[in-house]
Fold:
Amino acid sequence: MVGDPDIGPYHRTITLACALGYLDLRFPDYDWRAGHPGAGDWFAATSAHPSLEATRAPEALAAEARPDDGDSRGRDDERALARPRP
Structure:
């Protein structure tokens, strides 16, 4: 439930960190940090947390999952993410 005092603000932190990590994973050429240096600094510090480090996509998987063009985005992303991690 939104605003639940037992959950606190942590779900918002995780959501934002995942969204920024997704930008890095899927759109590596999009330099979102240039326009948002504060968010970039926050993400660098937050993504160093052990729980986020442990769930980061391996670089090989990340490179494989990037769409080559607009037509392959949905199918290729699903196939790449479904492969077992080494």
In short: The CA atoms of residues 15 and 65 lie 20 Å apart.
